[in-house]
Amino acid sequence: MALSQAVGRVGRSLLSSSSSRAMSMSVKPAMNVAVTGAAGQIGYAALMRIANGELLGKDQPINLKLIEVPQGLKPLKGVMMEIQDGAFPLLNSVVGTADLSEGFGDADVCLLIGARPRGPGMERKDLMSANASIFKDQGKAINKSAKKTAKVLVVGNPANTNALVLSANAPNLDPKHIHAMTRLDQNRALGQMALKLGIGVSDIEKLCIWGNHSSTQYPDITHATAMIDGKKVRLSDVIDSKWYSETFLPTVQKRGAAIITARGASSAASAGNSAIDHVRDLFLGSGSAWQSIAVASDGSYGIPKGLVYSIPCLCPGDGKFTMVKDLKVDEYSKKMMSATAKELVEERDMVRHLL
Ligand SMILES: NC(=O)C1=CN([C@@H]2O[C@H](COP(=O)(O)OP(=O)(O)OC[C@H]3O[C@@H](n4cnc5c(N)ncnc54)[C@H](O)[C@@H]3O)[C@@H](O)[C@H]2O)C=CC1
Ligand SMILES: O=C([O-])CC(=O)C(=O)O
Fold this sequence. Notes:
This protein is of the alpha/beta class. The chain has helices spanning 3-7, 16-25, 41-51, 73-85, 100-104, 128-145, 159-168, 183-197, 235-238, 241-253, 255-263, 269-284, 331-350, and strands at 31-36, 62-67, 91-97, 109-112, 151-154, 178-180, 204-205, 208-210, 218-220, 225-228, 231-234, 290-296, 308-317, 320-323. The protein has a six-stranded parallel beta sheet with strand order 3-2-1-4-5-6, sandwiched between helices. A three-stranded antiparallel beta sheet has the order 7-10-11. A three-stranded antiparallel beta sheet has the order 12-13-14. Helix 6 (128-145) links the parallel strand 4 and strand 5. Residues 36-37, 39-43, 67-69, 72, 113-118, 134, 155-157, 159, 181, 184, 213, 266-268, 271 line the site of 1,4-dihydronicotinamide adenine dinucleotide (NAI). Oxaloacetate ion is lined by residues 117-118, 124, 157, 184, 256-257, 259-260, 266-267, 271.
């Protein structure tokens, strides 16, 4: 069911005053950005920023394709009205739909947010039975309707295993282009570390997340450095190992649950922010900075091939990335990296019927 039938498309005619500004700013062809769960909390937090050019650049016109379940179309209509009221110069058109072929049609970027969030006392993998099958259907639809070059970011939990399900059902896409989001975990780790050291987050480099977006994830500081008083130091030389293992690690690993307890709902603004960070860095590049991306393992570091596992990557731009290879991995890291891989193998076993 297409919402565009109910509210009409927000197109150039409706945004004529601002679209002429977009035309004068850029002659780039518009890119198609599909967003599922567009009427949910994360969608609401991210869409205005996406429309404002924070996802793909301030010179990149976009067509937004907003996907919801049929019962989400009413609130989606309100979100579309607000987007229209934002008069975004880069926004070429907006469509709201519950039809997957329409929503993913010719998509360049798919942000897969739509899924049930967890409540207090649940682990993310408790969402498996409710959410994983969503990604089978969406994988098939993306396979059929999106561009073969589309870049897909899975946010809905359990994100890594949902991305695995999606990839198995979208054989036309290169699995390298199907990611699950662990950028929020990386951002959380940076925030906690900067707070502890009394420095800025951009003073810290090469801090990364390995494995699952779950409480078994491994936020690794063994390769990380920080600028402190104008000098570059290794984090492992200045951070107390007891604070690292007893405070920092569990704080980052369980941050999602702590936010649910505090807010009564799971992270939304920070999740939307991290999804924007992930896609922006993929398309616009982030130089020598390491970015944590959960993507099909190629077997490096002994991680079982094919598992969607977070690994540090470099993002040169244009939708490309390379994994950081040949790092020295100490015994503690090996243990942590294999514990989170083990959880992902268990999760994979739970969704065998969808692969
Ligand atoms: N990977 C990460 O770092 C994070 C992941 N999440 C996950 O993101 C997901 C969404 O969270 P919220 O936006 O807070 O939830 P929400 O409940 O506020 O919104 C979810 C939206 O998705 C829609 N939806 C459900 N099934 C759908 C489907 N098959 N197709 C299209 N839309 C569908 C719902 O109608 C709803 O509007 C949850 O699974 C949550 O656990 C949340 C925070 C961080
Ligand atoms: O914890 C949750 O359920 C939501 C989420 O993934 C996060 O905040 O990292």
